[in-house]
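Now for our target.
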Amino acid sequence: LVENTLVIKITMAPKNAKIWNEDLVLACTSRQELDRQQGKRSEVMWSEGSRVLQSVRGDIYQFKSGRIVNLPTQKLSKTVDSLCRKIIEGQERILPDGYVASNVQEQRL
């Protein structure tokens, strides 16, 4: 008799690690809105990226070594994946240039 066993590996973020899920969704959503206002077709790419990032069950974070955990690279377009990595690494702002913050939380970013 063979027993089927499902093993789920859960990685815990280090205590001082920044959790990026909400910020990355905001980054995609703000770029989608900006592109919609400018009439660009890339708004669809940002919308899909936002949807994929919202569906992530675990926390997206980065180890001190630089390894990013739980970023769904295979499901994101190369552009969205690249932006997410740049935001996490501090090379890119969460809100794009030209985007007008619509609430207090966004204004702090």
